[in-house]
Amino acid sequence: MNRVQGVVKMYARDKWGWFYLPWIILLSSFLVNLIIAAFLPMDEKIVTGGLMSIFIYMMVAGILSMFQTFPFALGMSVRRHDFFMGTMLMITLISIGISVILCLLSFIEGDVIDGWGVRLYFFHLPYISDGGILSQLVIYFSVMLNLYMIGFLWASLHRRFGKSGVYVLAIAGLIIITLLLYMANYFEWWPSIRDFFIGFTALDIALWLLPITVCLSVGSYLLLRRATV
Amino acid sequence: MTAIVEAKRLTKVYGQHTAVDQVSFQIEENKIYGLLGRNGAGKTTVMHMITAQLFQTSGELRVFGAEPFENNEVLRQICFIKESQKYPDSFGVNDVLETAALFFPNWDRAYANELVQAFKLPVKRRIKKLSRGMLSAVGIIVGLASRAPLTIFDEPYLGLDAVARSIFYDKLMEDYAEHPRTVILSTHLIDEVSRLLEHILVIDEGKLLLNEEADALRGRAYTVTGSAARIDSFIAGKKVINSEMLGNFRSATIYGSLLASDQKSAEAAGLDIAPVTIQQLIVYLTSGSARKEATVR
Amino acid sequence: MGIMMDDSRPIFVQIAERIEDDIIAGGLPEETQVPSTNQFAAFYGINPATAAKGVNLLVDEEILYKKRGIGMFVATGAKERLMEKRKEQFYEQYVVTMIQEAEKLGISIDLLTDMIRKKG
């Protein structure tokens, strides 16, 4: 029995957390939007950010993997390395699966039942769907993986250094961000920042996100190697 | 005899606090060990280091002849059941058992089911909804059915009643007889388990206090009672590990086997001699630190 | 679980004593097979290694002997030898102590023998 596969199977036992809950959250968000759209007396397109919910959920899943599954896996005599590889494999498969379904829904919303008959654009979003279905797939996948890794890294930091480690990082991060914002204002960087991003398509950004995600992943592996329960 | 675990001057320091202090011992194959000592003595820390869940500050540790850290050849042979084990919130009892089946090469599904019946465990119920005793039973089932060459139980029966504990002891001995393996059992209930143990390690304040065969500890100490003056002359030059006074009446517990000559002189002096159980012996040996603590505070 | 063991004396000694008792009482006649160490371990709720040590003690004293591949058997003459051993122990443990206690209480040897006869 390959122990990395074992970790994936262990995750997959949590059907609720991986297969039902994300869709329940997304679907309830969608239904609320659908009802609102049906009753709104206007003719313009209604574009909502409700799709974000499933992405935020992935970040929470990243935190939970580390807090709940890691100590359990160690208790099952799983190596830290195998836990990490299994986790990466699982989240990659899950991200691909969810992205494919989201693209399918986007296609239905955009081209089959336009706006679900009520002008609601929940899955087929401007900018993100600009580059066609394949680029959309890559965008969803990359963002989802990235958010999961942010949650996972955050929790790994907590596992490795405890509460104080997280506080130190949070404070340091806040200081750096405040400093950068202050500098951006002072040196009037905003227009050039805007121009910089406008120059990129959503796909460009998603592709740039991938190496960042890899860095987050390597970082959390290094933390996890020395994490204790 | 093959050594399954070899610890040399194993030490774990947390800031100012030395949890485990230069502990050296060997665990031999297919024996049942008792790892005993008071709360906070360092037992759990030692077990966490053996299973590579904690890292030693210094010292050497070999498990199945190798470093346990990130070593699948070692880890897959170990099953560590601890009182503080966390489970994913959504997992039910059957999820835990199925996961154990994935990772423990010797997992016996039929035996696990038999144990589930014996402990009357609701397999469909979520771990979160189990009582403390049922949660302990889950750990015990994983520990037994994994048939890991090195099985470690750290206080495995919090919340279990006397009947369930006795089921655990019976099942452990029964399965051990059929599938010999190395077992380390850490517990406070020394009287209950001492007869299951072949070897006893006692840790006190991070130091290894005793490392002996269980049977060698039986009769290792005795208590003499009688008039204070006669007791005083009898205990002169002997190692007294506990002593109590009641008026002119005194009792003293002496560490060491009762020699025939001592027995004769005690009897001649009209002193009563009573044997000391393993539990009493360990309580006397480890409560010295309790007194020290009391004076410090 | 199991039958009570005295936790202040080595258990292997107690196991040997119980087998001896059984042989003396006729529960284990000579040339019959004694239970296996695992059976002893299960019955008394003790570690099999400890039970084995108790059995081996009696093998060393030639009370039991091993038949290869079958198990342990009670040796011929075991009962008689045990009775002899126990008689010596009886003298040491009971008679000597009794006489010491009698002396303390000022009971003469004559009075003591009278007491024993009365009871008998």
TrEMBL record, chain A:
Descriptive protein name: Uncharacterized protein
Organism encoding this protein: Paenibacillus montanisoli
Transmembrane residue ranges: 20-40, 46-67, 88-108, 133-154, 166-184, 196-224
Keywords: Membrane, Transmembrane, Transmembrane helix
From TrEMBL, chain B:
MF terms (GO), sorted A to Z: ATP binding; ATP hydrolysis activity
PROSITE patterns referenced in this protein's UniProt entry, alphabetically: ABC_TRANSPORTER_2 (PS50893)
Protein keywords: ATP-binding, Nucleotide-binding, Transport
SUPFAM superfamilies in the record: P-loop containing nucleoside triphosphate hydrolases
InterPro entries in the cross-refs: AAA+_ATPase, ABC_transporter-like_ATP-bd, ABC_Transporter_VariousFunc, P-loop_NTPase
Pfam families on file: ABC_tran
Domain ABC transporter: start-end pairs: 5-230
Protein name: ABC transporter ATP-binding protein
Species assigned in the record: Paenibacillus montanisoli
Automatic annotation (TrEMBL), chain C:
4Fe-4S as UniProt keyword: no
Superkingdom: Bacteria
The HTH gntR-type domain, residue ranges: 9-77
Record has DNA-binding as a keyword: yes
Cited InterPro entries: Tscrpt_reg_HTH_GntR (IPR000524), WH-like_DNA-bd_sf (IPR036388), WH_DNA-bd_sf (IPR036390)
One Pfam family from the record: GntR
Gene Ontology molecular function: DNA binding; DNA-binding transcription factor activity
Keywords: DNA-binding, Transcription, Transcription regulation
Xref: PANTHER family: GNTR-FAMILY TRANSCRIPTIONAL REGULATOR, HTH-TYPE TRANSCRIPTIONAL REPRESSOR YTRA
Protein name in UniProt: GntR family transcriptional regulator
Protein source organism: Paenibacillus montanisoli
